[in-house]
Specification:
The protein is built from 24 helices and 26 strands. By secondary structure, it is α+β, with helices and mostly antiparallel strands. The protein folds into 4 domains: 2-63; 82-286, Heat Shock Protein 90; 291-451, Ribosomal Protein S5, domain 2 (2-Layer Sandwich), CATH 3.30.230.10; 472-605 and 672-701, Rossmann fold, CATH 3.40.50. The relative contact order is 0.07.
Length: 710
């Protein structure tokens, strides 16, 4: 055997070894018996050795290249919309819930572009029982006449050809959110079926498609006195992991569009659910005040510092700018920005221009009025933005986005346009409203004092982490692996459940941090008090994060983040829901980057244990419990089946907790993401803020959906 391995080694280091020499060695070697092994065994071993050597060194690189099957026949050309179906995530982000709703946004954005051009003021979105969606507008209608270059109807070209549309023609659309020209054609490619109906020039035309393929030519089906386009599509279940639309997600987007486009009416019908009168769920969105009303909506759950929002419009130059801003008594900043109605989540040059103008103008006014003379602390840009709610909307003819997802604006001229507009209008407003201006400056001074105290508190937490003999919290049961990409941190409600989790976990990659009671409600607390809370300090220390980067002393620094999965695991009762909401509020307000990176999750422990004899099954919903009871009940005798309702994690033993909630092969996790930062901010401030009336209204409106354990 040693000789065989020696031969293998020789073959690897001596590429010139020929097959003939190896065959000779093989024949010689197989004629002997060594150490009691049969020649048959050695034949097999050496033949294997020769095979490996031949595969590795018996062929020169040129021989391998010549023998390869790779040729022109291997080059694939994807025709039409095949590329979209082959790699849908490249065009719509993903094939989950986010990508599913992106189909609706693409179609609605086409109608909004008609509105921006001045030809549409009414858009209707309907969700049907089969989760198909119909979008109707009263715009000009997609052209249906012959496209000379393609030699077919322009409607078919728009629906079936990538990078085709009127958005590339500046005379058709001055501004547009979708400049890639892949929107409605992507929807078509990922739908089974899709029907397009066009009302144009007194006639009605239609064409149907399946997976992007026309089922017949564009045909005339009647006459009309209306204009507009109707797109009715059903997402392909073979593409998407789910095809169920979320009503609130669609409603949130339509509400935003109504605020961003004053005077336009958007209606939403959900035919899957009925109200008390048996009619489909319905909402109408219309705004005459535009961004001013948007800011009032966002701040409706907070105590106002100034009575009316500051509304700025600037139409001079090539980039129209509209900004609405207001101050409240909270301690957080909420800046929401849009470019051509597209929410730029990561901001961009327009946000940078706004911040420069705000800081320069307010600081200039405060210095001029002498209100900062006695302030010994340095005032930073962050101080001017505490308690600020702002919506920025710009219209850019040639926007430069980072990819199709459009989350950050890169146009340098947008920065100057916004800065000029805000500096000029805000300067006039401060002079005309001295009382409100004084209140704003006083809040800025308080923010600077609080920031200074918060920085000391943060430094104290971080200094203890570095200098302490044991830098990690004492309650933390850490994992042995040190690779953050592999490690998970469970934030567990209560010491009892924490004990079960510690015993049931996989110590190699799962860490457990029990949390005692309810953490501080950060929505109502000043920042420096947050870092005094023991449970919050433990979370920060355990995760290994800190605050402060070269660009921003308040930004989350994740350079030393120890876990790429932070999992909130609380009881399935009212207290558990409250604790989970408190933790989510902390992460949203102070560790949003961690959410945006996709590192935050929620564990889903089972609600029921269904047991009969030695057979045990778990149910995560009431419907699943009923189904399991019927499944294991002998001859339909449900009384013989035992059902245990889990109200606390501590009711499960370590093995059960591992099997149902912690085993990566079996568990279910919800990844926390931010679909709409504006709506999330509004929701957190309403649920966790000081104002009681909006919270009461929310509870009364949604009480029928609550599932209480009584």
């Amino acid at each position: 055997m040693i000789l065989a391995f020696f031969m293998l080694f020789q073959c690897k280091v001596l590429p010139a070894a020929s097959t003939a020499n190896l065959q000779s060695l093989f024949c010689t070697f197989c004629s002997a018996k060594l150490h009691g092994f049969s020649s048959f065994f050695w034949c097999i071993l050496v033949k294997f050795t020769i095979f490996v050597c031949y595969e590795n060194v018996g062929m020169s690189p040129q021989d391998k290249a010549n023998s390869s099957d790779y040729g022109a026949s291997n080059i694939q050309v994807l025709e039409g919309l095949e590329a979209v179906r082959k790699r849908p995530a490249m065009y719509i982000g993903d094939v989950g819930v986010k990508g599913l709703h992106h189909l609706v946004w693409e179609v609605v954005d086409n109608s909004i572009d008609e509105a921006l051009a001045g030809y549409c003021d009414h858009i209707t979105v309907e969700v049907f029982e089969d989760n198909s969606v119909k979008v109707t507008d009263n715009g000009r209608g997609i052209p249906t006449d012959l496209h000379v270059k393609e030699n077919r109807s322009a409607l078919e070209v728009v629906m079936t050809v990538l990078h085709a549309g009127g958005k590339f023609d500046k005379d058709t659309y001055k501004v547009s959110g979708g400049l890639h020209g892949v929107g409605v054609s992507c929807v078509n490619a990922l739908s089974v079926p899709l029907r397009a109906e066009v009302h144009r020039k007194g006639k009605v035309y239609e064409q149907e498609y399946s997976k992007g393929i026309p089922q017949y030519s564009v045909r005339e089906i009647g006459t009309t006195d209306k204009t507009g386009t109707i797109i009715h599509f059903k997402p392909d279940a073979d593409i998407f992991t789910t095809t169920v639309y979320n009503y609130e997600t669609i409603a949130t987007r339509l509400r935003e569009l109504a605020f961003l486009n004053a005077g336009i009416t958007l209606e939403l019908f959900d035919h899957r659910e009925k109200d008390d009168d048996g009619k489909s769920i319905y909402q109408k969105f219309h705004s005459e005040g535009g961004l001013k009303e948007f800011v009032q909506y966002l701040d409706s759950t907070r105590e106002k510092l100034i009575p009316e929002p500051i509304h700025i419009t600037h139409d001079k130059g090539d980039i129209p700018v509209e900004v609405a801003m207001s101050y409240n008594t909270s301690f957080s900043e909420n800046v929401v920005s849009y470019v051509n109605n597209i929410n730029t989540i990561e901001g961009g040059t327009h946000v940078a221009g706004f911040r420069r103008a705000l800081t320069r103008t307010l600081k200039g006014y405060a210095d001029k009025s002498g209100m900062l003379e006695k302030v010994k602390l340095e005032i930073s840009g962050d101080d001017f933005r505490e308690g600020l709610t702002t919506v920025i909307s710009v219209k850019v003819q040639e926007p430069q986005f980072e990819g199709q997802t459009k989350t950050k604006l890169g146009n340098s001229d947008a920065s100057g346009a916004v800065e000029t507009a805000v500096a000029e209008a805000l300067g006039y407003w401060l002079e005309e409203h001295p009382r409100e201006a004084k209140q704003i400056v006083q809040k800025v001074i308080l923010a600077a004092q609080a920031r200074h105290a918060a920085r000391k508190a943060r430094e104290m937490v971080q200094r203890k982490n570095v200098l302490g003999s044991n830098s990690l919290p004492g309650k933390l049961a850490d994992c042995s692996d040190s690779d953050p990409a592999e490690c998970e941190l469970y934030l567990v409600e209560g010491d009892s459940a924490g004990g079960s989790a510690k015993q049931g976990r996989d110590r190699r990659f799962q860490a457990i941090l029990p949390l005692r009671g309810k953490i501080l409600n950060v929505e109502k607390a000043q920042e420096h008090r947050i870092y005094d809370n023991e449970e919050i300090k433990n979370m920060i220390t355990a995760m290994g994060v800190s605050f402060g980067t070269p660009d921003d002393d308040k930004a989350l620094n994740m350079d030393k983040l120890r876990y790429h999965k932070v999992i909130i695991m609380t009881d399935a009762d009212i207290d558990g829901s409250h604790i989970r909401t408190l933790i989510l509020t902390f992460f949203f307000r102070y560790m949003r980057d961690l959410i945006e990176k996709g590192y935050l999750y929620i564990a889903l422990p089972p609600l029921y244990l269904v047991k009969r004899g030695k057979e045990e099954r778990y149910a995560w919903s009431e419907e699943e419990r009923m189904r399991l009871v019927k499944a294991i009940a002998p001859e339909g005798k449900e009384d013989s089946v035992g059902v245990q309702r889990y109200k606390g994690l501590g009711e499960m033993n370590p093995e059960q907790l591992w099997t149902t909630t912690m085993d990566p092969e079996m568990r279910s996790l919800k990844q926390v993401s931010i679909e709409s930062a504006a709506e999330a901010d509004h929701l957190f401030s309403m649920l966790m803020g000081d104002e009681v009336a909006p919270r009461r209204d929310f509870i009364e409106k949604n009480a029928k959906y609550a599932k209480l354990d009584v």
